[in-house]
Amino acid sequence: MLNKTSPFAVNLEQKCINKGLRLTDQRKVIVKLLEETIADTKFHPDVDELHKRAITIDKKISIATVYRTVKLLEEANIIDKHEFKAGKSRYEAVTETHHDHLIDVNSGEIIEFVDEEIEKLKIKIASRLGFDLVDHRLELYCKKKK
Amino acid sequence: MLNKTSPFAVNLEQKCINKGLRLTDQRKVIVKLLEETIADTKFHPDVDELHKRAITIDKKISIATVYRTVKLLEEANIIDKHEFKAGKSRYEAVTETHHDHLIDVNSGEIIEFVDEEIEKLKIKIASRLGFDLVDHRLELYCKKKK
DNA sequence: ATACTTGCAAAAGATTTGCCGCATG
DNA sequence: CATGCGGCAAATCTTTTGCAAGTAT
C-alpha cells in the first residue's frame, strides 16, 4: 500500500487551491473532514455523516452545501464516490494508486486493498473484449474467517 | 460462457413454482419479461423498462407490483439485482456461473463475461485478508478500442 | 376460507435545485 | 463590485408501504 503520509503528499485544501476552487469556510470544514479518509483508510463517510460532523464545527452548514461540495470535489477529481450495497454514496480522498474494497458484511467495515495482478487482469479482459478500460470497480463482500 | 439454452435449463416460471411462489397473472407477465434476459445477455432492464413492457401486455399492472415482484424474485434467488453507475437498479435471471460486467460508457451497452482467473483471485485476496467471500461484483467501464 | 396480492396514492429516503441574500476574490 | 456560494424549502427521483378490495390455493 502506498505511503499516504509521504512528505510529497499534497493535502486536499491545497489541491482545491490548485484547481482554482473557491475556499469558503464551509468548504474548508468539509475538506478537512474528508482529509481524515487519508489517515484512516477504513473511513468512507456518506453525506449524512459528513454533515453531522460538520455541524459540530459550524452549526449552520446545511446538508445541501455538503451535497454540493462533494459533487464539486468529485468532479475536480479530488475525492472518489463509492456506491456500495447499502443505498447511500460514500466518499474518500482520491489516492495515487487505484485500490479496491472488501466489505465485511457483518460489521460494515470497509478494507482497502491493492492487488497488481487483478489490476492487470482487468485491463487484459477489457482488451480481449475489444475495449479500453476507463474506470472499474471491484467489491468483495465477505465474512471474517472462523 | 455457459450454454443457457441447454435442455436441462429450468425456466423462470418453473423456478417460481419450485420455490412455492404464488403465480398471479401479473407475476407471470413480469417473469416472462425477465426470461428474455437469459436469451439476450445484454438485456438488463430496470423497473421502469419492465413496467413499460408489462403494461403493453396487461395495462393495469402497476409499477408497485413490478417493484414488489423483482424484490420477491431477488430474495428467492431467481434474479440478480445490479447497481451500475447510473442510478436505478437493473435485473437479470440468475445464471449457473457467476459472471461480471463490462459497460460501454458511450453506448450504455452491457457485456457479460466470465474469467476463471479473476474469480480465483477474488477468493485468494479475500482469504489473504482473513475473509471468506460471500458476494462480489466487478464492473469494467470501458470505451471501444479505436 | 384464509392468507397472500394488487392498485392506488401517499410516504419515505437520497439528492438536486430555485431563489435570494451574502461572502469571496 | 461582480460573480459565485450558501441556506432554506420545495422539487425530483427511485423505491417502499398502508389500506381496502380482489384472488389464488
Greatest interface and its residue counts? A-B, 32 and 32 residues
Q: Which regions of chain A contain 5 or more consecutive residues with pLDDT less than 50?
A: 1-7
Give the count of helical stretches of chain A.
5
**Mean pLDDT of chain A, as a whole number?**
90
Order of helices and strands of chain A: HHHHEEEEHE
- How many strands in all of chain A? 5
Estimate percent helicity of chain A: 40-55%
Shape of chain A: globular
- Give the N-to-C terminal Cα separation of chain A: 26 Å
By secondary-structure content and strand pairing, the structural class of chain A works out as: alpha+beta
| Strand percent estimate of chain A | 15-25%
Oligomer: homodimer
Q: Going across the biggest sheet of chain A, name each strand in turn.
A: 4-3-5
Largest sheet of chain A: 3 strands, mixed
Radius of gyration of chain A: 17 Å
